[in-house]
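To: structure subgroup
Subject: Chain for Friday's discussion

All,

I'm putting the inputs and outputs inline so they're searchable in the archive.
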Amino acid sequence: MNIAVICFTEHGAVLAERLSKEFSEREMTCRAWIKKKEAQIPDCRNVQVLTQSLRDWAKEQFAAVDAMIFIGATGIAVRSIAPYVRSKKTDPAVIVVDEQGRHAISLLSGHIGGANALTLLVSEWIGAEPVITTATDLHGKFAVDAFAARRDLYIDSMPLAKEIAAALVEDKKVGICSAFPVLGTVPAELTQVENLYGVESDGSKAEKQNLLPLGFSITYRKNRPFPHTLHLVPKTVVLGIGCKRGTEAESIRALIRETLEQNQIFKESICLIASIDLKKDEEGIRICAEELGVPFVTWSAEELEQVRSEDGFTESAFVRSVAGVGNVCERSALKGAGTSRLLIRKTAHNGVTVAAAVKDYTVCMED
């Protein structure tokens, strides 16, 4: 975690120094500044004098760090960050601590950004009273956005996440459905339902079974077990890719997109692209992996030959004569996922092949 601290008085600098040391001891990166002319802080070695404007500092740090801590008035913090606030999904956590260390306020990105959790931590270190104003926390309810953030799950709809939070605060039941095993106790305010693959796109099957109208699904697939379904997507899908030498990235990208759409798979679920080592320098595959923000790994023909599939492989004598193994994409997907069952069998077009497999994953309800 990367944290920036700003203070405005010498009392504040003492707190900034203390926080900097606490974060450093826990192997978190923390830099601290004081915005004050001729500041006398001889015992605060980790606090540097800020020479640029506060506005420029705030703009720079807002885009670069995971959390910002203002030691001073709330108004200063609000005015400093206001021009840069964009989205709950991307904004850093922002906390305000008064210069006497009496209160620590979770100001921005309480759940997804982790400001609430960080506020509690800072309060414990300096003996402050934590001030947290998010409704689900005040009512002691499950917070779906915080749950997703702690597990690095993609949230496909922030409006639906807000709707779920509002429903829980109003003591309405919300459904939970998971494509993966669930470990731990499901909160009492959530109703767990079976994983309903093959649900009609309009949610009619869920309605016929009298399921709850609102809920969330932890999955890699765009299923709808509830008429209004929020999807929380873990990175669990491995794509295996094969192609002719020199295939353009656009051809590979197009087949990936088409294959995912046909199988209703979230692209955000992809965690890895895999192939045979003959393709380790294949520019088109590398570009697609970079665009998806995932690693690109390869294995030898001998390693891929050892992979086993519950459903067999779509073998090609020509591919075996060139690559030394009868199927690249399916074997690569299974090798990368560490499993023996394919999610998507070999799909081919314009000299490109794509297959997919899912890594084992467990949903932990408790932190």
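Points worth raising on Friday:
The chain has a mean pLDDT of 87.
Residues 10-25 form the longest helix (16 residues).

D.
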